[in-house]
Design goal:
200 residues; alpha/beta; Glutaredoxin; 7-stranded mixed β-sheet; two-stranded parallel ribbon; 7 helices
């Protein structure tokens, strides 16, 4: 387990130092973003349809900028996805104000906003008890992070894609390691900014 954690941290750190900006092509600014890549600016302000305990609202990713954002692609027919929801809730609650878990239900899953709202209201399905945010009818995250299997996890920190992992690497311990690294980087950024201000 320790070797897996070390490998995960090294993988995530490589993403930090090898960051490259995603290209903006034509009218559609969202393209596939690899590990180490930066999310395009337009990505942060795109308005998503969101369900909070089945209640619809609008959501923009920029409202959680500065946090570690964990994107979980899922569908109602994916039993292994739904089985992980309590663990994801535990991770979000273990780091209040520092971690945001987004359950992303993309187009093509067979689920719709209406069908999900109906299931939340009826209480049908184990996922209806989750307190996590659910993005519905997604196309934007799907373009940025194309995948063929569910669940599919994307870790975003400081605007960069830090990791794309399987469920076994998504642990409280590994999230803590990434947050420690983010704190170190933020302290360095503040020192550099203070030095620049002092010398200007």
């Amino acid at each position: 387990m320790m070797i897996k954690n070390i490998c995960f941290v090294l993988f995530a750190l490589l993403g930090t130092f090898g960051a490259v900006s995603a290209q903006v092509l034509g009218p559609d600014p969202v393209v596939s973003v690899p590990v180490g890549g930066q999310l395009p600016k337009a990505f942060w302000d795109f308005k998503h349809a969101l369900l909070e305990r089945g209640n619809p609202k609008e959501y923009v990713l920029s409202s959680d900028r500065g946090k570690l954002i964990i994107v979980d692609f899922w569908a109602t027919w994916c039993g292994s996805c739904i089985k992980r929801f309590p663990k994801l809730e535990e991770i979000e609650q273990a780091f209040p104000g520092k971690v945001k878990v987004l359950l992303v239900n993309s187009v093509g899953t067979g689920d719709t906003q209406e069908s999900l709202i109906s299931r939340f209201k009826s209480g049908l399905g184990t996922f209806t008890s989750t307190g996590l945010s659910v993005i519905v009818g997604d196309t934007v995250f799907l373009k940025a992070f194309p995948h063929k299997a569910l669940p599919h996890y994307v870790w975003i920190a400081d605007g960069d894609v830090r990791a794309i992992t399987t469920a076994e690497l998504l642990t409280v311990e590994n999230v803590g390691l990434i947050l420690e690294h983010m704190d170190v980087l933020n302290v360095r950024k503040k020192k550099i900014e203070a030095f620049k201000t002092k010398n200007n």
